[in-house]
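Objective 1b of the project was to move from sequence-level analysis to a structural picture of ligand recognition. The entry below was assembled by the postdoctoral researcher (A.K.) and checked by the PI before modelling. It contains the amino acid sequence of the target and the SMILES of the bound compound, zinc ion.
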Amino acid sequence: MPSWTWYVARKNREHLAKDLKKLKRYGFEGVHLQGDDETMEQAVALAGELDLRIHRWYVTLMNGNKEILEEHPDWYVVSREGRSSAEYPPYVPYYKWLCPNHQGVIDHLEKKMREMASLAGLDGIHLDYIRFPDVILPRGLWKKYDIVQDREYPRYDYCYCDVCRSKFAAEHGVDPLDLPDPAADVAWRQFRYDSITRLVGRLAAVVREHGKKISAAVFPTPAIARKLVRQAWDHWDLDAVFPMMYHNFYEKKIAWLEEAVREGEEALRGRFPLYAGLFVPAILPQEMPDAVRYVAKGEAQGLCLFRYGSMNDKHWKHFLAQ
Ligand SMILES: [Zn+2]
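Corresponding predicted holo structure:
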């Protein structure tokens, strides 16, 4: 099965060369690589020799950059309680998110895409954190955060910044803060889906102008992705999608992979390929062949391992034996 992996680059070039060669030897198709500009240049040169595809793995809307926080606090999403995630990040201190409707954010991200996509030999850009903050966390994480999210609570519901409110009001004649039940309002939900879908379309256009492909890491199924983080990814303009089918986050067994893949494939209807993201730390080495089998039964185009560093020798042995 065509395979990819998410890979966080270390500084050492020896490691990168060794690992990319190993992935090529194991028949991998591509790598989502996180690292600085220098690392990308090195990786792309190596990947060219190896005929391995490199997508630059980019954290898109979650952004704790000091300069942006200081110069553009208005770029950040605001909760239904009226608090900016820049000042009051939900769940964890680093959960500071940019608003997909703010023109400054759009310009900033388009510029980033242009810079990254100008690297010759790079196959594409891989968008991650291309969503709103979780209005509801995956069920398997409630315990970790000591939280119960049986419905949408104002504290975790975004975005009610001035830009989003006035844009929605212009389109629908009502301020979203005045909606009696925002969670139940179809138009307001759709507005949030469309905000992300539209941003992806704009970034895709910039990336493709440079002859590069665009892919994204998303929540596991179209239904879960809409409900938890407002991603209607089956409607996005992508060249490939990599849903993070991390079964343990949803208190599911490995067999769920087949169902999750099938849901995605049915929604996509072949518009672009789906690679099932596997959460290696929750898969025992001897379960690797089962995981691959379920992904294949759901008829995914391929799979993607999260992440390279989590694969131990036993994982590799069982993965390659399938
Ligand atoms: Zn906003």
